[in-house]
Amino acid sequence: MRLHNGSLYWPETEVDKKKYPTLEEDITCDVLIVGGGVAGALCAEEFSRTSLKTTLVEKSTIGSGSSSANTGLLQYSNDTMLHEFIEDIGEEKAVRLYKLCLEAVEELQQVTETLSHTVEFVRRPSLYYASNKKGVAKIKKEYKVLKKHGFKVDLLDKEKIIELYGFEKLAAIMTYGDAEVNPYRLVRALIDKAHTRKVSIYEHTEIKEGGTDGEYVRFESPKGTILSKKVIYSTGYETVPFAEKLGADINRTYAITTTPINDFPKWTNRELIWETKRPYFYMRTTEDGRIIAGGLDEDKREAPLDEDIIKDRGQRLLDRVKEHFPAYNIEVSHAWAASFGESDDGLPFIGRHPDKEKVYYCLGFGGNGTVYSKFGAKLLCQMLHGIENEDAEIVRLYR
Fold this sequence. Notes:
This protein has helices at residues 38-47, 82-89, 91-112, 133-148, 158-165, 183-196, 240-246, 307-324, 369-384, 392-395, and strands at residues 4-6, 27-34, 54-57, 73-74, 122-129, 153-157, 171-180, 200-202, 208-213, 216-220, 225-233, 248-258, 272-275, 282-285, 291-298, 332-343, 349-353, 356-363. It is an alpha+beta fold and 399 residues long. The strands form 2 sheets. Strands 1, 4, 5, 6, 7, 12, 13, 14, 15 and 16 form a 10-stranded mixed sheet that branches. Helix 1 packs parallel to helix 6, helix 1 packs parallel to helix 9 and helix 2 packs across helix 3. The longest helix has 22 residues, at 91-112. The two termini are 27 Å apart. The model has no long low-confidence stretch (mean pLDDT 95). Keywords: Oxidoreductase.
């Protein structure tokens, strides 16, 4: 599956890329992680702090899949609002999910502080504004429920938004505790950290499951065999048939990076900005003074090959940025399209396969997949150590 196309920004920011070998021998391990994107990297880092002998395999190069097209917004708020989740799965589970996501952002910060080089992790507030009159009611309802359950949140009216940002919106909420990151650097730094802790990493190693061999699951590659007691599939949006069976869709989206500017008047705190309209437009800034913006989601699975389509969508996204901040002297420097997955209920798929006791999944489907993957890695680590966690019920595969 073609996960992205166009001019990607993040890979250009990482110059010194450590290379890992291709599997060319027969090995055994306690845990095999399949996939070298953000979910796999977070799982590898989590298991690297345990006594379990862990191996990770990536069929291409580390971070070259969806993670290189990720726009790096880390939000505890979901594409599905908290009050909407409450209606769907109940108040207790919904609030717990949001708190798990907030905890995951905190834990991501703690992990990044241990990494050997910067991944541009910065805590940011989020501005979530009403796109239209219908969105105002949603914003006010979300404000009340967030406030009720102890989340730090402010309600902004039209006048306050104009005062702070210069653009006109009917209402917005400001939430606190989110962050931004360079997702490509994050993946590579997590893998490097896991490797220093004796996790075996293999690139350019495509494997196929070949049944069981006693207490092990057998995997075959062109030049070697892996026997593992447990396996975690963190293959993201390439897990298409399985994801569809669980209840998920694969669509495509677009994103741009702009040329850098020196400062951001009327965007003082460089909040993560997004809207209530679906599909929604969003934007953030980068460490070197660029703006990343995304949206224009389409009900098509793979990124388009036609560069003119990507160029057109990139210009549309730039126009949206300039609607908010017309004084900014910026142009598009990078534009790309990427596939992304969304579950039918807005939740990730994390946990053990119901019919295969040795097989687990960490699929962080949704707009905040990195955050989902962080608490997913922690949850799976507990599971594989025999520790029960009632949160597993919220994100189990078949629900």
